[in-house]
Amino acid sequence: MSTPVSIPAPDTLQAGLKEWDWCCQALLQGRLVVVVRKGGIHERKGGLFSLDHQRFALLPTHLHQRSDRLTAAAAGQVAAASPAPEPGLLSIACWAEVVQVWKVTELARLLALGEELIWSHEELAARFHYRSQPWLFLVALRVLRLPTVQRLPDLPRYAGCVSWVELEQPITCSASQAVLDDERLARRVAGIADVLSRP
């Protein structure tokens, strides 16, 4: 696996990936460096997720978010840090770049990642077996914090159980700061890769 290295920030980003607000908070804290994806009922390509973009804004959503879908430790940490949503607005605090992707076909390998994940075993198992296709994508991200939270209108076309959103108004990425430096991120990603590759 190649080592993640710093990259120049784009001027703007128009693609957004919807993710639970609590996951966005955990990514911003450096508590989490991966997201797990399978798809949603309104996804293209038969309801399955595809990695349409390498760089994207992280769009916090409360759709399907429930504390019992997280580990007890994670629920306490991120729920306390999660601000109440502003009606009619998207509050975007960060963007991300994909640094590694794994298609995990054994649930036990995924569960062996332990504290690198914030979802409960039951939630991971449900996602893993979604649509009777036993696998999940695990996507490692470099997360960059915007200098100020950017608030955009939460348009009706952004709603629904989909992963990707094309923002009508792009976010400005200048002066973003990486949540984890290259060395720390590389260690985390290498540790995840090691667990997933064990016999």
CATH first level:
Mainly Beta
Task: From the alpha carbons, calculate the radius of gyration and give it in angstroms.
Answer: 16 Å
- Mind telling me which CATH architecture this is? Roll
Question: What is the string of helix and strand elements?
Answer: EHEHEHEHHEEEH
CATH superfamily: Hypothetical protein
| Overall form | globular
Helix content: 25-40%
Number of domains: 1
Characteristics:
199 residues; alpha+beta; Archaeosine Trna-guanine Transglycosylase, Chain: A, domain 4; seven-stranded mixed sheet; 33% strand; globular
Describe this structure in words.
By secondary structure, the chain is α+β, with helices and mostly antiparallel strands. It has a single domain, classed as Roll (Archaeosine Trna-guanine Transglycosylase, Chain: A, domain 4). The protein is built from 6 helices and 7 strands, in the order E-H-E-H-E-H-E-H-H-E-E-E-H. Strands 1, 2, 3, 4, 5, 6 and 7 form a 7-stranded mixed sheet that branches. Helix 1 packs across helix 3. It is globular. It starts with 11 loop residues before the first strand and ends with a helix.
